[in-house]
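Running this now, will post back.
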Amino acid sequence: MMLLLTAILLLFQFQSFVFNQELVANLRSDGTSEVDGLLIVADTSVLTDYVAYIFNPAILTPLLGAVIAGAEFRTGQFGMSVLAVPDRGRLLAGKLTAVAVQVLILGVIWIGVAKALLHLAVRGSDALVDDVWSPSFLLADSRVLLFMVATTVFIYALTLIARKTLVGVIVTVLLVMVTMTQVLALVSPAVDALTPFSAARNLVLAGSDVAVPLTGSPAWGAAVLLGWAVVACVVAVAGVLSRDAK
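Update: finished.
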């Protein structure tokens, strides 16, 4: 699953690489560039594409949480762990932490790959090369990592509650569709900002020049993401303890 997700990331990064090469080739002294007949501000475009081309494949990382949790039930591993470990709360905390760390490592690898390819694409411009490690890029990196970890842990916990991989997959797909179609954002922006993936969009894409309308601030997006993850984890732990007590 991780290899498949990384392959999707590389596909997006290839598109970004080609675009940025053309951008640097047509770069003007005033910091603008002409790509596909359009005049764009180079540094703004590079940051926007950098964020967008990580965010788009990262939307699928919560599926990893569903697959991991579902596999534990399907193979019986989760049941054996519950019987073997007296402290069920600590067991769940360990599993949730392991998933978070796994996704965090994946995110760091993705960001490293994206930065390396971006560095190669814009190496003809010293200013753009320096931007790769600027505070705005590092802030974007931290927001992406928060998004990836929080949403994956949320879906992992949700799948633990339902004990079905399909539930985690369906919920992920439905939430992504709500965000991508902008249906809820048109009806009620305030409610849209409370959904996990719309909150992630508000967090990650804030400050970039994207055509997608945002329905909340990055701080509110981070709070909503963490809220969903924490609530799901608490319910998952309570559910396991309750079922065990019965």
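The chain is about 80% helix and 5% strand. More later if anyone needs it.
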